[in-house]
Each structure stands twice: as structure tokens, then as C-alpha cells.
Amino acid sequence: MRQEFLNSNQAVAEGAMSAGLNVYIGYPITPSSDLFEYLSEKLPERGGVVFQAEDEIATINALVGASLSGARTMTATSGPGFSLMAEGVGFAAMVEAPLLIVNVMRTGPSTGIATQIGQGDIIQSRWSSHGPYNLVVYAPASAQEAFDYTVRAFNAAYIVRTPAVLLSDAVLAHTRERVTVRESHEVEIVDRKKPAEPPSEYKPYRSDSSDMVPSFAYYGEGYHPIAESLSHDERGYYKTDPRIYRNLVERLVHKVERNKAKLVESRSYYTDDADIVFVAIGSMARSVLALVRDLRADGVKAGLFRPISVWPFDDESFVSSISGAKSIVVVELNQGQLYEIVKSVLWERGIKDMSLHKLDMILPELPGPDEILEEINSRGWRLW
Amino acid sequence: MVVVAQKPLHPLDEYLRTDRLPHIWCPGCGLGMILQAFLWSVKELYERGKIDPDKVVFVTGIGCTGRASGFVNFDSAHTPHGRAIAFATGVKLANPKLIPVVFSGDGDIAGIGGNHLLHAARRNFDVLVIMANNMTYALTGGQLAPTTPFTVYSTTTPKGNPDQPLDATKMVYALKPNYVARLSITHPTLIRESIKKALLKRGFRWIEVLSTCSEIFGRHINFRDPYELYERLKKVVKFRRPQSIDDIKYDWDNEITCGTFIDKDDPGWMETYMKMYGLEDKLGGL
Amino acid sequence: MAMEKHEIVIAGRGGQGILLAGYILGKALVDAGYYVVNSEEYSAETRGGDSKSELVVTKGEEPDIIKVRKADLAIFMYTDQMKKYSKLVGDSATVFLDSTFIESKPEGWSNVIMVPFTEIAEHEVGNIRTANMVILGMFASKVGMVSLDLLEKSMSSVTRPTWIEVNKKALQKGYSLKV
Ligand code: SF4
To answer: Which CATH number fits domain A2-186: 3.30.70.980, 3.40.50.1860, 3.40.50.300, 3.40.50.970?
Structure first.
């Protein structure tokens, strides 16, 4: 254990190394490149390999190959690169390859503003690829959390055998704070579930256990698994039979939900007696927390719910955090993506006695608490 | 229950998932000959103690050729369209002891996946790529491929192909990886010899095999019988040693130059990286 | 007891060593026992564009915000960025201006220290690129919070070995400057 003064890009790199990273594959893109550079220096010293691919499409597909060959593997990118990876994310989900993608969100759409923050990739982080599947997404809000949730995201990837995404942002990426770096032996590391059966009986896509996750034989171990991007049966054989397709894809979709208790994470601040609960993630949540404290000082009973696992969403904690509230304000640097998630939770839970507000701030910079307050006032909502 | 070991019907059965046969390939298709040459090569090298089949990772992309990953009894992957080389790169990075083999078609490797080919070749990255070139997008019904000859019909260029075709072998040759060969299903023994050699080499190895798609390409250019297409291919294939890169021809009407164009033994990417970054011990060498 | 809290803005043109100054100051403040949130902003080009480093510094509890709301301490090394970011600085803040590039101080600020840091770096330290260190040295002597010692230690841990001596000289020069 050691204390460091690191930005979130560096904290992610340290977290990944403590989580057992051994293959990093990347393509440079602002504002994630310094994470790549940091690992280029440090990872080989720990026996790992760093590889610069020709583009993000190569990156994601190489990650899948590395993952299935037994490596703990990751990349870091930003919006344009993450978009290029989309098809490969679906492939990783389809062949159940655990791996980590760090998306340091910047201003979009398209090339946007390379160095500036955005939060427009929230929905994309869950479903960037075509087709039904689910994965796990964590959004840290400090350098320490960047470290902690990198470890956690790697574990999540192995718990459910799926890609995991860490949603960072351009402000966090280049904000230094104190980070307690724990070494590999000081963090919990979840490994693959090894096959118990002999190779002749091994079926790479069969799961008999309640977690719906198949055991994982690596390439080179004699099990001859097939990574099949087509619809496949338990053996990995291409099948168009609707029942086989359904068995497979329902499992891909539901296994995240099934393991939810091990995956969800959130934090609530001052929500016990809150009349108004704000919802925000990442560096935006830091500004909102400052606003909540200002409002409290003025006698307004405000609170903050901060989802850390964006998917699966910690709806239990969310519902209890709003139990006494009259209104919810979702604050984000996009057109209302987190808002859509919150709205669907409220609908599913049948919570109707609540006014829900979308504070969609389409800005290329992180607003401070005063600017957020100004924006709320400009909308004419009567919240307090 | 006592299971009596059955004598295989064919000497290559142990390298096939026989429960998946018959394969999808049309009668008269050349792809089976290439796959067969590959399997014979592995079998022979295994029997001579040169290769462990459990370390072979057989990677394909999308297309008729791509379906081979489902038929073979190796660790295998049927990756998204064009991404076989990228996937194979990750395999090697993770475990240098594995032997990734990419087996895919011209559209997959040289079209949509062309960028990966270019970069894997220039890096001399440790992967063997076998590209079956049938000059068309066969699985999807005969659309234009980057390798389709100039002026030839395809379903997306009904009045003829206005593009100049890509000579993928010539492109790879220009990048000077360790091994570059172009062969043809009309000369199957040479394919087998070439694969055997390439399997044991380090660095990037490239084998293009001209193949006959009798069902789509052949019919589209009015060959009713697979044999006619075979004969036509045989006529245009010329084995010779080119004098220079410009001497490598990809001309459907006159000559498609075949042969082994590069055979050298420079260290591959993995070895170079491991030496440079002090990783030889940790990764256990190749 | 009120929590000790400072907000610091350092800004100038890309190439003036703004981000490095922020990093070195931040690291020294951490060693001095503060919790430091040090955020950086820069334009895509490394030379000539805007460059800004912000530090939210507290003793006691960890701060929530990342970005400065009203700085009580500021360093500006170029006019354009001073104008652009002056709204972040409180009227009573202690402001260091590099008069090599900034001709006049704006209205409103009551506590401004104007010194030709870049000229001093060039002629008295012998390296024009150490102006950022001259400022940090002076910051330590005028503001307190960190000692010259801690700044030297922090600087030595993050700059390349060939720069350590000249940077030390610059820090010391700034520390001993009289206004
Ligand atoms: S369509 Fe052509 S390439 Fe495909 S299997 Fe049939 S003959 Fe072979």
C-alpha cells in the first residue's frame, strides 16, 4: 500500500496493474493517451505486454483474442474510438470474453472537442453494439475511485464473463488527487471459473450454475473451445434454431441481472431527509455535491444519489434514497441519458408521486455549483 | 457403458469436428482443398514432433472460407467480418506459445480487414495468414470483391467491374514480412508444402491460395461446370520467380504469378518486443 | 474551527510550464499535509494555446468540487489567459502577474504582485524556461503554505534530472525576491 498523487488516468493504470493486467492494447486518443503512455512504461516492468494497434477496431478484436487466450486485458479510449469498437463489444459479449474498456468521455458527437469533458456516452456504454446483450459499467468520481473501480470492473468482467466499461471523463482524467494504491496481494481478485470436466466433455457455452456463467477454458489448454460470433449452441456450433438462439441470448442478457448483487454500487449523500434528490455521475457529481452542501447551508433539504454502477443500476439504493423526496433532478452533460435510466426505474417501480426534472446541460466543460444553480433557476422550476 | 474407440473413417478425422460434417461448401468448390492441405500439414508436423495441435488457434472471419473454424477440431474463433488478423494478434500477445493461424477469404482479409493485414505484415507479427482468393463475395451471392478482376461481372457491378483489383500478395510482398507465397488449388501438393514450411516459421507468414468458386464466380462468368473454371484458373496460373515487385502479375486474362516470393527468418514482433522490453524470461520465450 | 481552504488558479500560454508548476505546487502541498485536487486544462496544441492548472486545497475534510469557484490565490503568466480566467479570481485574492508579458493589472484586484518573472528567469537564473519556478519560489515566501524545501523536493521528484539544478536556482531566486 502506498500513497500517490495521481490523476484518474494514472489511477486507472495503477488499478489495472494491481488487478493483474497483463496485456494492454490501445490506440492513442485524447484524453486517454497519457494512460496508455503510463502503462507503456510501467506494465512491461511487471512482465506485461503493451501493444499499439492500427485502430480501435483492431484493438477490441485483439482484446477478445487475448482474453480468450488467458490474459487479463484492457484498453482505454474516448468517444470516437469507443464508437469504432462497437461491433467488437458485441462480439466480446457474444463469445463471453471478459475484458475492460476505459472510456474517458470527451465532448461529442463526432470529433467534438478532444480535450474537453462530455457525458454523452452513457447509453452507448451499455449498448454500443447492435443486438441484445448486457454488460457492466462503472463511473468513478475521483482518482481513488478510478483505482478502486478499475479493480472492481475487472472482477465484474470475470464474475459474469462479459466486457466491463469504466466511464471516466476528461476532467477526472486530468485531475490529481491522493490515491491509496494497493498492490495485487492487497486487493480482491476474481479469477475465471475453470472447467471441472475433461476436454472431451467441455462445452464452452454451457452453464449449469445459478449464475448463468459458463466455465472458461483458455486457448492452448486442450479444450478446443470455439469463439463463435454467429448464434450458437452450448458447444459453440452455429445454429439458427430459435430455441437455441433464445437460450443463448437470454443468458447473455440476464446473466448480468442474475449477478446484480455482486455488481451494483452507489453512494447517497444527505438523502435521509431530503426533499429534493439530485442524481449525477462522474466529475459532475462533485459539482452537484457542492451545490447540495450550499443548499443545505441555506436550509434547503437537498441530497445526492450517485450511481457508480451505471449498469446494472442500483435501483434498490436509489429507491430508498428518494423515499422521502418530492422531486428528483438529474444533472448531466448531455441530452438526458442518465435521466432516461432514472425515468425507467421510477416507472418500473411504480413511483408516480415524484416530480422528475431533466437538467440536461449540453456544455463542453464542467459547470461549478453556481452555474448549475443558475441553470436550475433559468428553467423556472419551483424546487424549494 | 463401454465406449469402443472407433477407427476413424479418414486419416484427418481427428482434426475435424466430424459431427459437423457435411460442410457447407458447394461441390466443385476449391476451399476444401486448402483446408485439407492445412490439416495434412498439421498432422504431418505433429507426427514428426514439430508442432502441438493443442497450441494451434484457428481463426477465421466471415465468408464461405470463414466457416472452416466450425469444422476443425482446434481452438478456434469465427470472428466478425475482417477482424481475424486483429483477433489472432491478441492471441499471440496473450500467450506467445500459441500458434495463431488465420484462414479466411479475400473479401474478409484484403477488403474489410485490409488495414489489419497491412499492419500485421509490416510489423512482421507472428501469425500465419492463409487467404483463399475466390475473387468474389461468395457467401452473400457474388458481390464485388477487392480481388474481382477488372471488367468482370458481379451482382453489384452488373455492367462489369470498373475497379482495378487489389493484388494482395503484391501488397504484402512490398511490406517484406518473413514469408510470402501465392499458390493455387490447381496445384494442391505445393499448398501443403508451403503451409508446412510456414507453420514452423516465426514472424508474419502469408499464403494466398487462388480458389475456385464454381457456384457463384464460375456461373457468373458463364462456366456451367466447375471443371471449366478449374481449367480456366489453371491456364492463368504461372509459377515463376518474379524479377521485381512489378513482375508479380494479377491479371485474370493473362497471368497470375504464383510461387514463393519471400522466405526469410527475421525475428518476429513478439521476439523483438520481448527482447527490447526485457520480457523473455517472464513470457517463457516462443 | 473553520476549515482551512484555498483555491488557486495558475494560467498562461502553452509552453510556459503552467501545468508543471501546478503539479509541483500540488505535490508540495500534499507533503505539507493538505488534501489537494489539482485539475488541468489545456488546448489540443501543446504550444501557444490556453493552459490552466487549478488547485482546490483543504486541511481537514476532502473537498467536493474539482474546479475553482473563487480563487484566493492566482498566478497569471500571460495577458490573454489572465483576461479569460479573471472571473475565477476574487477581488481580495493574492495575484502574481508576470510583468514580462502583462503590462497592466486589471481594475478590482487589491493585492497584486507584479514582477518580470520571465526576464528574471532569462537574465538572473540563466534559463528563460524557469520563470514558472521563480514564481513558485516567490509564492512560497509570500503566501506560506509550503516551504522552499518542500517545493524543491517536489520539483526534484517530477522533473528530469538535467533540469533539477537550474530549477532549484530559480526557486531560490524567486523565494528571495523583494517586491
Ligand atoms: S459459394 Fe463459392 S466459395 Fe462458397 S462454398 Fe460455394 S463454391 Fe465455394
So the answer is: 3.40.50.970
